[in-house]
Amino acid sequence: MAAGISFLFYSMGTLFSYADAAETDDHLYVTGQVMEIDRCASAWLIRHYIDPLAHFEFLNDEELMSSRATTFDTPYSEFQRTHRTSTFEAIQNKYEVNTPRVNAISDMIHDIEINFWTKSKEDNTVRFQIELKQILQSSADNRSALKNCFEYLNNLPLKGK
Question: Would you list the domain boundaries of the chain?
């Protein structure tokens, strides 16, 4: 496609346009507007282990469908929650990130997102869930939530680590 040319497509009653690839940002990652533990931790994983230049936008469903950025934790993205894996685990597995910190966080997120009916969560998982929920709920907006979540995950004391 020549520079400056875009194309249009029609989906579910809405007209969308795509700019050509030269106009996209390889370091832009987009997700939904509601900040959650798996979403926040996935953004942390991307920034700290996949793409240190990553920046994040929070879009509504229509904007997500037309975005040329890398999407995560949305129904149609490559990196999404399934009945067996969290979004965090999908990213971790694709990029083969296996540090003690990432593995410990991955285990806790799996317990929260996938094993949510299990009553026997470890104390550290329960503490992790409570503390991160408090951080997300007390943050003024998604950008400050990410900043606070990143700080929390960077400084999280891990059992035996």
Answer: 19-153
With tokens 């869930």, the residue in question is 129
6-16 pLDDT per residue, tens: 334 443 444 43
Choice among 19-23, 43-47, 97-101 with the minimum mean pLDDT: 19-23
Report which of residues 16 and 116 the model is more confident about.
Answer: 116
**What does 51-113 look like in DSSP terms, one character per residue?**
-TT-EEEE--HHHHHH--SEEBSSTTSSB---SS--HHHHHHHHHT---HHHHHHHHHHHHHH
Q: What is the CA radius of gyration of the chain?
A: 17
Q: Are 161 and 104 in contact (CB under 8 A)?
A: yes
